[in-house]
Amino acid sequence: MQTILITGGAGFIGSHLTRLFVTKYPNYKIVNLDKLTYAGNLENLKDIENSPNYTFVKGDIADLDLLTSLFNQYNFTGVLHCAAESHVDRSITDPLAFVKTNVVGTVCLLQAAKEHWKGNMEDKIFYHISTDEVYGSLGEEGFFYETTSYDPRSPYSASKASSDHFVRAYYHTYKLPVKISNCSNNYGPYHFPEKLIPLCIHNIINNKPLPIYGKGENVRDWLFVEDHARAIDIIFHNGKIGDTYNIGGHNEWTNIDLIRELCKQMDVKLGRPEGTSAQLITFVKDRAGHDLRYAIDATKLKNDLGWMPSLQFEEGLSRTIDWYLNNTEWLNRVTSGQYQDYYSGMYGK
Ligand code: NAD
Ligand code: DAU
What we know:
The protein is of the alpha/beta class. The protein contains twelve helices and twelve strands. The chain has a seven-stranded parallel beta sheet, with helices on both faces. Strands 7-9-11 form a three-stranded mixed beta sheet. Strands 8-12 form a two-stranded parallel sheet. Helix 5 links the parallel strand 5 and strand 6 (178-183). Nicotinamide-adenine-dinucleotide is lined by residues 7-8, 10-14, 34-37, 39-40, 60-62, 82-86, 101, 105, 129, 131, 160, 183, 185-186, 192. Residues 86-88, 131-133, 184-185, 195-196, 199, 211-213, 218, 220, 255, 287, 294 line the site of 2'deoxy-thymidine-5'-diphospho-alpha-D-glucose.
């Protein structure tokens, strides 16, 4: 029997992780703490919201009093820490929001866990979900390893790097039983349409320009979100305390090639003549400090714990597009209201 606190469970990755744990482990009690920022959406969890082993709490991870009372109430045996401000472009316009949630919020969570588990750290796990962006930017060659030095370059990655350092500091100083994973770019259902893939799917449906930063030559390593959730499950249960695991898709795409593949698939699915969606591609001003390339070496996770990505990218992309085409109400709801202000601020009307 475990009682697990998942933070940020109403977001993109958090909702997949919550669904996996609630359905796969009916004997675990899962408490989802989420502030419901613009990126958090309880609709993402509609199918499991009434499960007897699931509870939702609305709140901020930077609220230490709330965390302390939740630890007292539920006696958590594990934490899966997913909550974060996650969008690089927003971190460029509002870095402080990233410090508050990603740094201060993570330290509050560490502090609450340390105080509650003091004297009895046995069988407890504090799992911190992090990103490959902490390693910085690669040139055309090479990979990020667990041993690669940190070199964050955006306010987002600097805040995530800082949170990783605090997690390790609590392990070394207080013996808090921590695990960390650093994952590459995720894609899949429930991805908020401010990020490249869902933004372009939404724009293709609506015949709007597809904004590609710079020349579209930046490279990302894409992983289907359910494969990430599966990796977290394996590391949570079988990974070594104090260790870090890289998670990645071994699936590098330049942004322009990825969007061309997306356009090709969407033309077929929407019954449009070949080449229609690609005409929407528009090169726009580059992101400030835009990291050139990310590529994860996930050999440790494969060799030690037997995890591998399960899906080919073209198939994962096809499943993702189908999900958005079948869930236009979800897409319309999340892109109404505040999203319009964000969009015109970033890209113009
Ligand atoms: P997301 O933006 O979709 O979701 C974040 C969730 O956290 C939302 O539900 C939001 O409401 C919640 N949240 C934000 N601030 C909070 C606060 N102060 N208190 C409580 N809840 C709060 O993010 P995501 O893309 O699902 O990313 C989840 C985690 O995975 C993040 O830690 C991110 O750094 C990491 N990560 C993401 C990717 C990716 O490609 N999306 C890749 C690697 C790692
Ligand atoms: O690598 C893991 C990271 O991946 C996560 O930690 C972040 O939370 C997640 O947001 C993601 O960061 P990126 O900046 O790589 O993702 P994004 O979808 O914003 O951008 C992917 C690439 O596409 C990047 O090179 C920037 C580019 N891009 C993005 C947008 C939104 C564009 O060319 N145009 C756009 O409109």
